Amino acid sequence: LSRQWSRGYQLTASYTWSHAIDDVSDIFDLAGAPALPQDDGLLSLERASAGFDIRQRFTLAMVGRLPFLGRYDQGKGAAGWLLGGWQWAAISTIQTGQPFTVNTSYDVNLDGNLTDRIDTLTGLKVGQDGPSILRLTGAPLTLIAELGKNGRVARNSFRAPGVYRTDISLSRNFRLRGDHYLVFRVEAVNRLNRTHFGIPVRVSEAPPHG
After folding, report:
1. CA neighbor of 44 nearest in space, from 29, 23, 25
2. How far apart are CA 48 and CA 96, in angstroms?
3. DSSP, res 105
4. pLDDT score recorded for residue 78
5. Cα 49 to Cα 35: distance, rounded to the nearest angstrom
6. Residue 113: its pLDDT value, please?
7. With contact defined as beta carbons under 8 Å apart, do 85 and 70 qualify?
């Protein structure tokens, strides 16, 4: 969606829904999941949302001129050169977080690889934000499968917190001579100062953080 008004005001908005599915997202281990399968003999268990799957994304961009300096936009002389033509811009991005896998540090299925996943979600609370989004709320006997078996919780079953950021800028092109311009630009990234945590430590036996 795009709309442009007089005096240089413009708005652009876009929304994307997507779903990427695969059985491995890279040949190397990623922050969200190992590259090797849980069980080499059952590769079908790896089919799930890709490690780079961003389900929803919304962006809103706005551009305009400073209204209280608009009278100088067409002005000449020192005042017009210095105060005219100032432009502001802002872009906001809101998107869902990346998926990740919770693994155990034990080779439960005895295949020689430390890629085993947990077996149950009982007693495990998944939050929406903050440095610790996975918490044990009860006292389950164990989160891992029986010896020699695969964990039943699928690959990439969890989601990291989403992203919400707004960047703004203020700019002015000063014409020096002919086709030569001096560009002055100030930018503020993540202006609302919102904290964005990455994928958490996802090994069930890892010590707590935060």
Report:
1. 23
2. 17
3. S
4. 60
5. 14
6. 92
7. no
What integer best gives the mean pLDDT of the chain?
85
| CA neighbours closer than 13 Å in the CB half-sphere of residue 64 | 15
SS3 of residue 69 by DSSP: helix
Beta carbons of 150 and 45 less than 8 angstroms apart: yes
Token output for 95: 């998107």
β-pair type (180-188, 99-100): unpaired
Euclidean distance between CA atoms 207 and 105, whole angstroms: 12
> Interior CA angle at 87 toward 82 and 90, to 5°?
150
Which residue type does 63 have?
V
Cα–Cα distance for residue pair 206/99, rounded to 1 Å: 19
**What are the tens digits of pLDDT across the range 104-130?**
999 999 999 999 999 988 777 776 555
DSSP state at residue 108: T
Give residue-wise pLDDT tens across range 61-108: 999 887 766 655 565 666 655 666 788 999 999 999 999 999 999 999
Q: Which residue has the higher pLDDT, 194 or 166?
A: 166
d(CA 112, CA 205): 18
Give me the residues paired with residue 181 across strands. Answer: 175
